[in-house]
Write a structure and sequence with these properties.
Blueprint: H1 17-28, H2 40-53, H3 58-66, H4 69-73, H5 89-98, H6 103-110, H7 112-122, H8 124-129, H9 132-141, H10 147-154, H11 159-171, H12 186-192
The structure holds fe (iii) ion.
Length: 195
């Protein structure tokens, strides 16, 4: 699949949304999460499982599950960062999701890359612990925030949720971890669809 939007959903954003999402994972989820020992689907399931274990609401669980859906929608290959390309997956994902899910799902996803840039600026240990793949993408994403950018991020309505999401994202890279299957998260997805 090389389009950016499943054609079956054109014009009817609320019909078949979950089927389209499951289709994206089925068709593209086996690709590896760039430079990490997990596939895109494993990464998404681990992030959602971590969120669920912290007993957050459905919106943040869904945000964790779908935070990298932009990679599945992108026309760029998974390893594009190594070729010096930022696929802007957080914006692509947020744009696609914004017609389908509530802002409590979409906004933390839109901010999960800025959250990394924020954490690199405010926490030297965080920067030091980034995987080499994450360091490569950080450079393409603009590097650590300036002090002014840190203040601006702090003022955003979904900043705290984005930072929580970022922590699950960073931890969801464990090879062969046992996690629930995609279907397990369907009730959370259904709860967060736009009415
Ligand atoms: Fe991720």
């Amino acid at each position: 699949m090389n389009g950016q939007t499943p054609a079956s959903n054109e014009g009817a954003p609320h019909d078949g949304v979950i089927d389209d999402i499951f289709g994206l994972f089925r068709d593209r989820g086996d690709s590896m999460y760039s430079g990490e020992p997990v596939s895109q689907t494993e990464h998404a399931l681990q992030a959602a499982f971590l969120a669920e274990q912290e007993r957050v609401g459905s919106a943040l669980i869904v945000a964790a599950l779908l935070h990298d859906i932009g990679h599945l929608l992108s026309k760029h290959p998974e390893d594009c960062a190594e070729a010096g390309i930022d696929d802007r997956h957080e914006r692509l994902g947020a744009k696609w999701l914004s017609a389908r899910f509530e802002p409590e799902v979409v906004e933390p996803i839109r901010l999960h890359v800025p959250a990394k840039r924020y954490l690199c600026a405010v926490n030297p240990d965080y920067l030091q612990d980034l995987s080499s793949a994450s360091l490569t993408s950080l450079k393409l994403q603009g590097g650590p925030f300036t002090a002014e950018e840190v203040r601006a991020f702090d003022a955003l309505p979904h900043a705290q949720q984005a930072l929580r999401l970022r922590a699950w994202d960073d931890a969801a890279k464990v090879a062969d971890l046992k996690v629930p299957v995609l279907l397990h998260f369907r009730p959370h997805l259904e709860k967060c669809l736009q009415s």
